Recover the amino acids of this structure.
């Protein structure tokens, strides 16, 4: 049996931009993506700690070490600059593999730095 489990997350990143007039997605600093094992175009869930909003979208790679966390398109209505978000990535695994899986947890420092 296959089950979907948490693969990795970026915990309590600060939204730095919200760009309503963009096609859609979330832009994430490449260094954060790499640390969390999140790939460009991968589907992620974004949970806003400040207002409880949840959304699913895909990732666009942002400039490395820029600290960028930008909600684009309609997602920009779900957060404002300064909100804290959790970015969750999931993976499908066989049940036995999932029993031993440990997700990657990235907790950025101030400015969304590693």
């Amino acid at each position: 049996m296959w089950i979907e489990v948490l693969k990795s997350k970026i915990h309590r990143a600060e939204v730095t931009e919200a760009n309503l007039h963009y096609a859609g997605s979330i832009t994430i600093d490449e260094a954060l993506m790499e640390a969390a094992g999140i790939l460009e175009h991968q589907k992620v869930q974004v949970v806003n700690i400040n207002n409880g909003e949840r959304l699913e979208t895909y990732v666009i790679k942002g400039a490395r070490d820029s600290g960028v966390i930008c909600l684009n398109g309609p997602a920009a209505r779900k957060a404002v600059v300064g909100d804290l978000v959790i970015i969750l990535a999931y993976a499908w695994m066989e049940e036995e593999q999932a029993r031993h899986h440990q997700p990657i947890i990235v907790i950025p420092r101030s400015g969304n730095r590693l």
User: Anything to note?
Assistant: Residues 30-36 form the longest helix (7 residues).
